[in-house]
Design brief:
The protein is of the alpha+beta class and about 270 residues long. It has helices at about 10-25, 40-75, 85-110, 125-135, 160-180, 230-240; strands spanning about 120-125, 145-150, 155-160, 185-190, 195-200, 245-250, 255-260.
Length: about 270
């Protein structure tokens, strides 16, 4: 019985290229349908494609994660050695790149794997405060000022706390990366009739108007070190909650990302 060929790096690159094409096809699903033609199963088709991509991503993550873990453990073992400066720099660089690859495969899985929303009643004010307190201690945020404006009265919504924390972490990360040392980042929670709106504002470099839509597409990033999955993950989680994501940005008023969530998603 013939043995299967080992999974090589070139195979991995080919799979990633195929996945990028499939993800972009999902993102532009609505724009590729002839004008005037009735669409009956647009959402169902998108969900089916994401289900297939989820299986595909699981396979990639499985193939990459095990050897990557071995590589990381091997590299970390060298940290106990007294290395010459040039080799220490190379070791640090290798560790950073391995960590980046690990984050990438995890985010690909998070973005493409369809998950049923498991919602429960949660105090959205308390969730935001808890998330900000933990995030403020991170190196990215220690030289920024995070200010939260809560609702006058605490509001409870139906949602998934872990996923909504991921939304906040991604938005705060983007805001901190765009801001300068000492800048203030404002987080505001507004209570509307049947929904709440979380606004994250920063005074960093604005997003060009022609990129306000493309930044929500998978694998598109304006940052040299970005993987282009942060905002698409936010958008997907918000839509799973029946909500909407909006971005407003200009040099005069800065950038505001608004997340509107229904109090009780149907």
């Amino acid at each position: 019985m013939p043995q299967s060929k080992p999974f090589t790096s070139s195979d991995y690159q080919s799979l990633i290229q195929i996945q990028q094409s499939e993800l972009k096809a999902c993102t532009h699903l609505g724009t590729q349908i002839p004008k005037g033609q009735r669409v009956v199963t647009n959402r169902q088709s998108e969900d089916a494609r994401f289900a297939e991509l989820g299986k595909f991503s699981t396979m990639i993550v499985h193939e990459v994660r095990n050897p990557l873990t071995t590589i990381l453990m091997s590299l970390q073992s060298f940290q106990n050695l007294n290395l010459p400066e040039i080799f220490q720099l190379r070791l640090d660089f290798a560790l950073d790149e391995a960590d980046r690859l690990q984050r990438l495969v995890n985010e690909i899985l998070l973005y493409t794997k369809p998950q049923k929303l498991s919602a429960s009643s949660l105090d959205i004010d308390a969730l935001i405060i808890n998330c900000i307190e933990g995030f403020q201690a991170m190196p990215l945020a220690v030289d920024k000022k995070l200010t939260f404006i809560p609702t006058p009265v605490p509001v409870e919504i139906q949602g998934n706390s872990d996923k909504l924390k991921q939304v906040l972490i991604n938005l705060l990360t983007n805001a901190c990366e765009a801001s300068r040392v000492g800048d203030e980042i404002n987080i505001q929670l507004l209570h509307q009739e049947q929904s709440v709106c979380i606004k994250v504002h920063n005074w960093g470099e604005s997003i060009p108007i022609d990129q306000l839509v493309t930044v929500l597409q998978p694998f598109y990033s304006t940052k040299s070190t970005g993987n282009g999955l942060g905002l698409p993950i936010v958008k997907r989680i918000v839509e799973e909650h029946g909500g909407h994501l909006r971005i407003n940005s200009d040099p005069q008023s800065g950038t505001t990302v608004s997340v509107e969530l229904p109090i009780d998603p149907k």
